[in-house]
Fold this protein.
Amino acid sequence: MSDQKEHDRAHDANEVETGLPVVALVRELEAGITTQVHRVSGLFGVLLLKIGLRLESRDALDHNERKRVINSLFHERARLRPFVARFMWLMALSVTIASLGIVSNSTAVVIGAMLVAPLMGPVIGMAAAVVMAWPLRAFRQAALVAGGAVLAIGLASLISLILPGDAYPLPAELLARTSPNLLDMGIALAAGAAGAYGQVRRQASGALPGVAVAVALVPPLAVTGITVQLAEWQMALGAFMLFLVNVVGIVISAALTFIACGFVPGRRLLTGNSAIASGLRWTAVAVIVVVLPLQLGRGRVLPPTDQTAQAAAAVEEFVGFASSSADVVNVSIAVQDGITNIDVVVASPTSGPPVTALAHFLAERLNTPVNVKLQVVEATTSGAMINDP
């Protein structure tokens, strides 16, 4: 017993001598691990390491809850074939509804197609596979999304081909989905976070239909198919870019939400640190790749943004300068074969503003070829005054 006490005193003395108590040694070891992880996996890896160490002390999600989420996102073995069959049938139905709603310019019908669409599940599954370091599952989910996209574009092209009547002027529901911007990326990021949270927290699962409506994965694919059939290649590219923006935005935000909600066990964040960090990096690169054309390619690669408001303001400005007695009644826009057709209705007691000068003014303001049709409605003023009723 005395030998043990003597050993403890010698150990304590050695600690004081070296100035490295146990806590300092642990911190030094952790700092060394962090440095090594930073060297191998970068900042993503260090962040995952910190979160993993914190989650190791407490499991934020019950094992059964985690298993429930995994079973709802990944359909394998005997469940795979029935799931794929259901997925393709629902894709076909949702694309049919969306295509008919877009052609008829019905917002309510397009919203119905969003609720039927089954794409949200596989996209969220891609995010879960990335953060769980399951590359094979991530590839399967991506293949399912790609297969659904091909089916949607082909079916929408067929529907557009067999529908009777002239497709022009193109409906507003179609034009609204041909020119994505950074606001669409922001919507996708928020929707992806909400979708992942709804999967992890059963109490919030009621928000999933709203998420599907907000992010709208199927309507851009339907627009892509319709515009491909009409040979409107720039619009088709814009609509497909909107679909890609939605997918990558959902994946990156859902992946981060899964980590923040504790869906990924701390031990997996530690053991699969490099693979998870690599997956997040590639997802971030995909976000950058689809975001750059939204600004740099505007008007050249992608169609310009909806210019109805800009055209209306320009018409108001020109009419106010050219004819003080005229009032703008209506301005409408339709795009066909790369030309912006602008119909202007003004009320005036005279002949109205000169249409050629108005066309030159609008072409310069909108920076696009224009075809302007001006309708002047005669405006008369009459009055009556009665002194003795």
